[in-house]
Amino acid sequence: MLMRRAEPAGGNAPPPRARAAGTLAVAAAGYVLHYWTWMLIGPIGPQLAHRYGLDAATWALLGIAPLLVGVLVRIPAGVLADRLGARIVLPAVSLAAALAVLALAAVDGLPALVAVACVIGVAGAALPAGAAAVVRAVPPGRRGTALSVFAAGLCLAAAAGVAARAVLRVERESGLLVLAGVLLAYALLAVAVLRDGPGPKRRPAEAWSAVTALLRRPVTRHLAVWYGVSCGGIVAVDLYLPAYLHRTYGIDWTPAMLAAAAGMGVAAAAGTFGGWLCQHRAPTTVIGTCFTTLAALLLVLAFDPPLVWVATPALAGVAVALGTAFGSVLALIGRTAPPAQAGTITGVIGAIGSAVGLFPTLLLTAVRDGDGSYAMGLILLASAAIVGARSLRARRGWIGAAVAFPAPAVVASQSATTVVSLAAPQIRAYLGDITAVLAALATRHELAVVCADPAPSGRAGIGLPLVAGLRQHLPKHTILSIVAETPPHPHETAAIAAMIDAGTIPVILVSGADPTPTAMLLAAAVDADQVLHLTHDRVEGLIPVQRLPEADYTAIDAAR
Known about the structure:
Radius of gyration: 26 Å
Number of helices: 22
Largest sheet: 6 strands, mixed
Oligomer: single chain
Order of helices and strands: HHHHHHHHHHHHHHHHEHHEHEHEHEEH
Distance between the termini: 41 Å
Strand order of the largest sheet: 3-4-2-1-5-6
Number of strands: 6
Mean pLDDT: 78
Strand content: 5-15%
Low-confidence stretches: 1-14, 409-414, 541-560
């Protein structure tokens, strides 16, 4: 969230920069380590299949088991991270993963192997726990970028895993012992460095009702699908790029795996770039552009173009598009997730998104097994990306206003009448953030919104998307948009005052670039207590409000 806003009651002042950087470094390193552990069964699958005599179907189910468990545990892990603090949950996840890895080195028998593989899936819970630690440690204006850096850990883990398979030849037992030792050391490091305490005391029923409420919000649906497409694409590249290069272009396995590791490194850098880009452009535009680019590049790759001059740049572009989209999604969560709910929100989106993200991998597997080629699978994935990009483009204003979680109120809790002024050029790229703050204000204040837009009632304007977003955030409120003159006519101000008295939230759309004079005039007419001017990076209090003499209203009316 880029605007200055109140933290939960009892919260401390913004943490020092060194502490925020240390928390981010530890959380990102943990994401790398736990993601690698979560995907562990895949790389050692051939050894396990040979040792236990597994057929292909059993081996595949064994590899899917930890992935499914990791998806399921993310929601409860996020809830616990909000209740108990990531300082407890993240080391507990690391300890459980270490014990499972140790058991994998000593297990004997297929039933025990399946049980251990399921416990290894607990490593997937590091996502919500780590994200909660980052959001609560980093000041509000930097949370989006910080969480995109955290997201780059997935790509770095994939790169490290592919590179390790290519260049290391370690015995399974000794390698697992080393990994278990690193996980135990990380648990101690997390306890020593992380400092977030327990969140608000809530009963379990209240915590799960918050999860249910999140599942009903449009923001959860949008972010989960975007998370699934981008994260699922990264996982598919991690798993299939070496085989694609080997079978399509005849590259040896070791160079193919190193090329895949390099691609994941590019995606990691692009994830951080996506977080930065979302601070300067509308997130829906960034993600839609990524999907459009991804679709075009996948269509090119489907026809087996020349490796050096076409396929290599196209594959690099795929990595950039996926990494940028994934970083943008995590940045959106970081910008708008209230710190007290960061773990729950990330857990819910991560669970749904990871389930959606299995689709690209399963599709490529099915198509490859069917006709022996990746072409049809790439074409189908490109078609899905085109549909997503067109949907974003067609409804980018409405989706942009909806993609935010309700924020804490930005002012004191006493009942008041507040007029908020907005300038479209200043907030167009941050419409979701602004909508979340307005929704929070509306739950504690009588509210009127003045929005200055060069095209207040046209398709390019932000007024209608703003109203639609507020209605999604505030389903029990009545929200009406009004296209008013500049300055508003006395009859218009009288109608707006009646709406406010009735509990309606009026959104007054005026032409021009500066809403402040109209907001001040309206505030005086309706006896407002305060005027706030919201931009993408600050909240300005325009007080005190002085009521204009009656003669001034008469002069304004006569000047028309």
